Structures are given as structure tokens and as C-alpha cells.
Amino acid sequence: MSQETIILALTDRHTAQLIAQGTLVPAGYRYHIIEDPADLSQRVNQADILLVDKNFLGTSTFQTLQAWHQAHPQLRTLMVTGDTTPEFLLAALRAGVSDILRPPLRTSALLAALGEVLARRNAGAEKAIPATPPEAQNQIQAFERLAEIGKMVTSALDLDAVLNSAVDAAVALTDAQEGNLLLVDPETNELFVRAERNLGDEFARVYRTKVEDSLAGKVIQSGEPLLISRRGPQKIKTAYLVHALIYVPLRRQEEIIGVLGVDHRDPRKDFTQEHVMLVSALANFAAIAIEHARLFSALQTEHDRLNTIITHVGDGVVVLDEKQRVLFINPAAADILNVHAPGQASGRPLAEVSEAPEFLELVNNAARYLPEQEEFRASDGRFFSVRWAKIPGIGLALTLHDISYLKELDRIKSEFVNTVSHDLRSPLTSVMGYTELLERVGPLNDRQREFVQRVQLSVQNITSLINELLDLGKIEAGFDTHREFVDIGPLVQFVTDEMQVVAAKKTQRILVSIEANLPALLANPTRLQQAVENLLGNALKYTPAGGRIEVRVYQEEQQVILQVSDNGPGIPLSDQPYIFDKFYRASNAPQDVPGSGLGLAIVKSIIEAHNGRVWVESYPGEGATFTVVLPTGEDTRKAQSPRNHPAD
Ligand code: ADP
Fold it and tell me: Which atom of ligand 1 is nearest to the CA of 588?
């Protein structure tokens, strides 16, 4: 019976107990279980074998082990770890670890390892450590080579270099004469030489063989390594005469994509199972490198394809980082935004490379406010619809779509509507005048009087529609240039006071909150009042009886913000992009609520003529909030010279 002492230094105490009682005691070993790493140094001098797991000694495991092995030549160490990377194995060998055991520890494997390590020690096969024995020297050399190739696989992008190194290493570590890495061509199901050593360039270039006709093909089909040694079967079916060979499969996930092989033509040389393991490790690296290269090339192709598409689309595309530096700009956008050297724009602030101040202002606002779409006029007169999306972790992506033709159509339509409205006004005035005169020229009976009243009401409706159209025409055309300093607070208060009567009739409540000391705005008071009336009017009109309307006015930095919200039916999401268009009524607008669809178009024109912005936020069933942002201070002064508007 053995009387050697085994020290168990395992992180899991329960496992240590099981091993001690279930394996060591029945086999006649003595044991100590160490729980605190600090106690270990006192115990190792009495131990024959230290069974330690990778984590037990913490970060300086290998240094500690090396010191103990030097101080106690009788000590042998078995390490329990799942980490079998070449770097780790190399470090373990250098620290004098005799063997590595992978969890879970099986009784038979553990006893075999203990027996072998002790037998080697007692036979003096392992000289004092760290004077490394010759076979360990070879192992160290092998692991060093593997570690080197492992590093290459993760750092080098040159697939040829990695594969050639893998073949070279296979040849060197197995002392073979030749080595080759064969891959399967999936189209022809043939094997071809992807990398070789000592095979000869010419042969490597032309060599092709059907998978099913070759020894390498057998490995591909079986997925198992093949070792033919001198002592094994001699009939070797390869295209050339060899006496011993190893082929191991190259795996990509479940698929076998090729083989790595080494051979001897010299009948005196041979291979062992250890060589098979080494070549297998190299084959794994080669397979990883091939997979990396495949993924990289797929990624590159996809990247190039996307790049070509985005470069050639007619729309402008700009991507900015969080600090408004250009990450990407396509030629169309570079042209629209006057970027002179698009090739050098990358990484520089947009403000530095582009001469389009209005676009920069739009980008500034894009980061802070809704909506996610705006119009922008380029310096060459073209109009663009700019849409943007915030991309988490990247920044802002903007697309610019040319809408000049739509603008032109819009202008022609507006001109036509203006002319027609104008021409309709005089005849309508006469119709109204004559209906008023009718009663003076002779008595009317009750029915006739009722009909005349109906005619008058209809004429009034048409006249107010025409007035709205003419108003819109004037604002859009930029004729409305009157500006004075306006106190927005009292103006909003006045409008809400006026509307209280209408609200009271519908038992609605209007809540008003106006911040004190708001700055005066350089604006047209009549138009601003009209905009507020339209927004508040809509809120009252569309919110059912008993509803609640809130009006808020406040300042934020250089802007005055007006918000009108209600708890009415809201606006369907699909209608929201269009409700500021002329004559547009949302699909949920009730039939019995009168309206021309011009009110919000007028609001938008007025606000834009004041260099402001207006948008809606609404979820159906949860009411709607209209927000108007008007610039103050510096920006307000700009309002004196109206912007070049489409209809200018
Ligand atoms: P209208 O004359 O139809 O009121 P507007 O241009 O003022 O025209 O408004 C356009 C459409 O937007 C309306 O027809 C209505 O469908 C919708 N809308 C405007 N304001 C509201 C609101 N506060 N609540 C619900 N829908 C609204």
C-alpha cells in the first residue's frame, strides 16, 4: 500500500472531502485537506503530491509553485483546471507542474495520474526541478510554438501567414518531412492545398483530389484524426509515397472544412499519439484563423456594398457623432452642404467643414427638440426635407431628400389659389350686398327670408375661407413684414380670456400658466394672436364637453415656448405628419365639427415667418400637445429680415 501524502488544496471543500474519502483513502494514500491558502506553505514540505486547483492560490499561483518546487525537490504538483490554452499550459510547465487534470475528477484518472507522477519521481525520471527534463524541454518548446501561433491567430489578419506558420509548426514539432493544409472546395468537393511545407510549389498548385478518393477525405468524412505509423498498415493511399502520416480534421462548428497533415517519406521515421495531439492543436488554430478571415471578408464585403449604395444614392446622408463631428458624409450631402474636401471631413466638426449655417442650426435643434423632420434650403436654392434619427452610442444620422419640385408645385398651387380667391371676393361681396338689399325692394314671406339667411350664412363661410386663404398667401409670400416688440404673456392671456366664454359653454376648463418676466419678442402681434387663437380654438373645438385645456408659456435659454395641450381624442399617428398641410383634416376629425383644414397651416406659416418651430405630440385617446418655440434675443433680431421663404 502507498504511504505517500497527498495535500488537497481545492477551492471546493466538498469535492476535497469526496476525493479524500472516496479515492485516496481506499488507495492507501495519506491526505491533508487545506482550506486556507496561508496554511499551505507550512504543509508542502511534508507532501509528496500537491493536488491544487487553479484558483486556490490566487494570482501568483505559478510563482508560488515554482518557489515550492525549488525548496522541496520531493514535491510533485497536479493541477486541476479547465484552462488548457497553450499560454496556461506553458506557464504551468515552467512552474514545475507535473500534470494537468481536467474537472470533473474521476477516480480512475486521478489514481492513474498519481501513480504515474510518483512512479516517474521514484524512478528518478524527473530530475530535480526546475532543471527541466529533456522530454519536458520538448513539451515546453511545443507549447511555446503553440502559444506563438495562438497569438498570431488573434492578432494577425494575414491568413496566409497564419496557415503557413501552422504547417511549419506541425512539421517542426513532429519532426516530419512534409506538411500540408488541405481545404475542401465546396463546389467541386475536391481537396486542394492551401498551405504547405516541402511539398513543392508546382505540386501544391496543381494538386486536387476528390474527397472520397483520398485518405484526407476519410478524415473529412469521419471527423476523426488519422495516424498511420510505420508499425501500422503500410498501404498508404496518397498521391505520393509516404511511410507514416497524420491527418487531423479542421472544424468550423459542426462542419469539417479541411485537414492538416504531416508525413514521413523516410521509412526510419515515425509518428506517435502525442504528435497527433500537437497537430490537432495546430489544426484548431488554423480553423479559427480561417473562420476569422471568412467573417472578416464577409464583413468587409458587406461594408463595401453598403458604402457603395450610400455613396451612390441621390439623397444626402450625414452621420455625426455626439460632438457633431463627421463620421460619414456621402457625396450628395457634401455637395448640398458645401463641404469642399469630403475626403478629409471625417473626424472633423461639421461646423468646420461645411458652409451651411442654417443646416448647423437645424442640427443643433435636432439634438434638443422634436420633430424628426425639417425643411432646409441649400445655398443653391434647392429645398430638402431633412430627417434625422438619434442612434444610441453613435450620434445623429441625417438624410436630405430633394423636395424642390414639390415646393415648386406648392408655389404654383398657392399662386393659383390666391388668384382665384382674390377674384372670388368681389362677386361674393355683390352676392352679399344684393341679399341684404332684397328686403328693401319688396316684402319677403317667412320662407323667402329663411332662404335669404341661409344664402348669407353660406356666403359668410365662403368669405372667411377665402380670407384665410389670402392670409396664408400673404404670410407665405413674406409680405407680412411688420415687426414690433410684443409681450407674449399678456397676448396669450388676452386670447385665453376671450375664449373662456366658448369654453364655459362646453363646460371646459382652460388652465393658464404664464412665466413672469418673459422677454419681449420682435414679432407681428396680430399674426401671433392669430396663431394662438387657432391652436386654442382647435383644442376647444376637438375636446369634448367637460374637457381640460392647458396653456403654458415659459422661457428656455434663448427661446420662448408656448404649449397648448388638451385631453381630447388626440390625433392618429398616421395623420400627424400631415396636419400642418393645407386642407388636411385628421381621419378622426368628427363630421359635425366644421373646419377647413387651414388653421394649422396658418399657424405653421406664422411661426416659421418668425423663425420659430411648431410641432405636435399626441397619442390617440390621450389628447394632443402643440408646442411652439420662438427665438428671443439675437435670434429675434434676425426676424426683422424675413427668411427666404419658398413662396418669396
Ligand atoms: P380644421 O379647420 O379642420 O380645424 P386645422 O388645420 O386647424 O383644421 O387642423 C387640422 C386637423 O388637425 C383637424 O382637422 C383635426 O383633425 C386635427 N386637430 C387639430 N387640433 C387638434 C386637437 N387639439 N385635437 C385633435 N385633433 C386636432
Answer: 16
